[in-house]
Amino acid sequence: MIGENGFEQFYDLKQGLALAPVRSRPFEEHDFGWLPGKVAESEAKAAGSGDAARLDLALEGISCVGCVWLVEKLFQRQPGGIRAVAHPASGRLHLEWAAGQCDIERFLRDLVRFGYVSAPAGAVRGDHERRRLGARLGLCGAFALNTMGFTLPGYLGMGEDFEFAGLFRLIAFLSATLAMLVGGGYFIDRAWRSLRAGSLHIDLPIALGLLAAYAGSIAGWVLGDERLMYFDFVATFVFLMLGGRYLQSAAVEKNRRRLVRQQPVPEAVPLAEGGGTVDRDAIVPGVRFLLGPGQALPVSGILAEGEADFSLEWIHGEAEPVRFTAGRRLPAGTILLSRSPVVIDAEERWEDSLLARLTAPSTEDRSNPGLEKLLRVYLMVVLVLGLAALGWWIYQGDALKGVQAMISVFVVSCPCALGVAIPFADDLAASAMERLGVFVRSATLWARLRRVRRVVFDKTGTLTLERPVLENPESITELDDEAAGALAELTRGSLHPISRSLLEALGVRGQRLLEARRMMVVEEFPGLGVRLIGEDGARWSLGRLGWDGDGLAKEIASGEGSELRRNGETVAAFHFREALRPGAVECLRVLERRGLSLHILSGDHPEKVRHSAVALGISEADAHGGLSPQDKANAMGALDQGDSLYLGDGANDSLAFDQALVTGTPVVDRSLLESKADFFTLGNGLDFLPRLMDAAHARATGVRSAFAFALAYNATTVGFSMAGHMSPLLAAILMPLSSIVSILIVAKGSKSAKGET
After folding, report:
1. Which of 146, 298, 445, 746 has CB atoms 3.0–4.6 Å from 280's, for a disulfide?
2. Which domains does the chain possess?
């Protein structure tokens, strides 16, 4: 499509960067029912001001400057379009157009064809935190420059008798104070909250150094002793630490809001009678409501009328659709695959449903006990050395020098390697994985990955593709345009896995045929198939082998597969199989060679799980099927010794997620776990797993090198400080220099480790 539209420059702009896979997004139905109201509101504002209409949207799929260019080019083709600006870092799209002259929905649907999906620009909590941190960083940068500018003359020989000396010192004090209030308060507040919770946080030694330097500077100003005045250090250190924290959080928050797909579990459902809706929290037994296509049933209930196809994959992991008839009980988490809504009689409240448990946020502690132990030892050593320096100089009869020595110890031993080098190492590792289509959501992932000794997989949708693979693709290519168009129409908008596979097999040809055809009414026969009447009166049907599309067939073939028929005559037969993800076998062998044990925990039928285990080379004793969500969680709890990575894709993996050290998920059509996982992947294969381990190793190598430097640096500077030779000027010079050296060491160490692996 890019080539046919003359957009080849897209690949030149990407400069070799990997593209996040489009997957099945262009073949899905996307609801833009929210758009007319947004457009009308924007155009009403434009009419009042006389300016162009403006609208900000969330955008999924954008990754680089090539994407930005492509989106702009697509918008320029729209009549009335003025400007489109896409932002890869924030996942936002800004549009400007002449009011009443541009079809915004057509443009957004055009974007979908290229793999970009739009949604209302939501206000996510992480985005606000990142913006506030960025604002703090900008202000503290200005305060640091101001402080250094008015402190430097004193270092260069400005005497106390200079008429503006007092004013310069006052400005330096005010700038450092503002830096403490705006930036230092961020670290002090977090350190205090962690202490109240009974734990140690990386921000505690940072807060200790800042408070010591600021309090000592005020004391030195009052006493007129320049040996205690660290105002420039305070402002510069706050700026550097905020820079490291912003770098660490920006990528994580960007990945957390990268996906804009709708949540399959509805927040509210329409009532079956009398109109209106009911929030899922307000559902009680006896409430009759409508469940829409593609939605997950929030509570268990009874199918009140008719029949429909449902997916129970979220419950027990089996991908095959199941037909339910009126009067049958549906468990919570059942997903409606039929095209029309169904009526459900609720049997329980939301808080009592299994799905509420599965979607509840994890309360598992993801802190790093090793880091807490290191911080505890580090703080004890720093405090002992600082107090020892104070006591020694008091014993020597120079209490003021003792105070200077103690403050200097606290100041120069602030953990630059922790505050700057680690965030930089995290960013390098996360950027490397993004190029492979893997997106990190947890800043603590990398340290935990180093402790992984076993990898546990769900089967369906994780080790295997989420949809069956067409075994005879030639059956699609051999169809003439009339038959291919009918097949595209029969599968358009369907959630059935067979239909989705066929629509994707039709590819761009199917999309073109759909654009040229008038949308037709498709009738659905649950458990059998779908049919439509063509413009020429021909009856087209797609369904089980032996079904001719004429009502309920009396005899249905027992074989597996589907048939496309015209007026009852077979046009094509399609055969499918469950397929492993690309490169799965090779990936697992690499993990085994690294000493990792492999396991499967699945809700799918035990025989299917055994068959997959044999194909993958996993011991049958380590592959378990037929597990409920709680069974999975129990099995995961028994396996995990604080050393397990769990990879799953469905709601039935949610409780097991809570038991694992590290969690990841491949993003699939009806994803739920990407908001709960430590990382998610948009690719089809599993070859990212060994590379994820490589990235963790490279990051650890860089961090260890930075820590070795920090140890040597701290030992030297603390010795100078205890001896009373550490001046505020020397501290202000050494601190940013040590941060720069730490960054260079991390970059070199990470690069060397990547070369080795």
Report:
1. 298
2. 9-122 (3.30.70.100), 127-256+369-426+697-756 (no CATH), 268-359 (2.70.150.10), 438-466+580-682 (3.40.50.1000), 469-577 (3.40.1110.10)
